[in-house]
Amino acid sequence: MRLIRSELVKIRTTNTWWLFAGGAFLMLVLAFLYNMLFANFALDNPDTSTEGLSPEQAEQVVAQSDVVFQAANLYTSGQFFGLLFVMLLGIILVTNEFYHQTATTTFLTAPHRTAVVLAKLVVATLLGAAFWLVTTALTIPATMVFLASKGVDNHFGDWPITRALLLNLLAYTLWGIFGVGFGVLIRSQIGATITAVVLYLLGTTAAGILFAVLQDRFDAEWIGELQVLVPSIASSLMISGTELPGSPPQWVGAVVLIGYALVTGTVGSLIMRTRDIS
């Protein structure tokens, strides 16, 4: 508990947390406005023409016009960039030790390195949960107001919505763990943060394009479903209020993220225990 408190102090007494929080809030507002415009069009045009679309694409258009799907999308607005900021905080929990040259003091004070890593993992999950709590507290009333203005039920409390919110919480906590593991692999703070941002933003887009091309090339629907192996895409799948045609169930995304978290947490602990700190 002392190690956990010390890690919280390290974050709380620097400018990092509020800079990231401010960035996450700005992106949350933009994401909610975008989702609101998308929901407004979908709810006003429930019988959107599917002419010229493949049967699978037509099914997806119809599914995305569902009120529950749009409600879940609004309630979980800001996840994409929120997860990025949580991952960056996890990275900084580790790389700050080497950037500010406090690693020696930390490991002399707490020579059991596994305990230090576990404390960082716990704090990363707490930070992720805090980000989820604040963003969800903002999106819930905003979504209710918007859906009320459209004259439709907000479905808050329905299991599909509750499941999406809980899985969103899981995603936020797991991405904090990813950040700690990434920071252990790349100790340079600048190198780790830039690499993580590039992989997260460009990697997600590149993976989506690659799987789409392969699916079209080999005419195999199962290839498209393999996109869930990409962590950011798995996170998006988890928060869908309804199952989309051509996509795996939401629990598959949760399993993928848990697997990545176990691997990164374990590998990070092992590396930190054996690596020279100088």
- The structure class reads mainly alpha
How much is the average pLDDT?
A: 87
Which residue ranges are poorly predicted, with pLDDT under 50 across at least 5 consecutive positions?
Answer: none
Written as H for each helix and E for each strand, in order along the chain, the element string is HHHHHHHHHHHH
Strand content: under 5%
Report helical residue fraction: over 70%
First and last CA, distance? 27 Å
Task: Specify Rg, calculated over alpha carbons.
Answer: 20 Å
Major sheet: size, sense and barrel closure? none
Number of domains: 1
* Total DSSP helices: 12
Counting DSSP E segments of at least 2 residues, the number of strands comes to 0
Spatial shape: globular
In short:
About 80% of the residues lie in helices and about 0% in strands.
3D structure, described in words:
With 278 residues, the protein is mostly helical. It has one domain (2-274). The longest helix has 37 residues, at 113-149. The protein contains 12 helices and no strands. The radius of gyration is 20 Å and the shape is globular. It has helices at 2-12, 16-44, 55-64, 67-75, 79-99, 103-109, 113-149, 159-185, 189-218, 221-225, 231-238, 250-274.
Give short descriptive properties of this protein:
79% helix, single chain, mainly alpha, 278 residues
Structural topology:
Blueprint: H1 2-12, H2 16-44, H3 55-64, H4 67-75, H5 79-99, H6 103-109, H7 113-149, H8 159-185, H9 189-218, H10 221-225, H11 231-238, H12 250-274
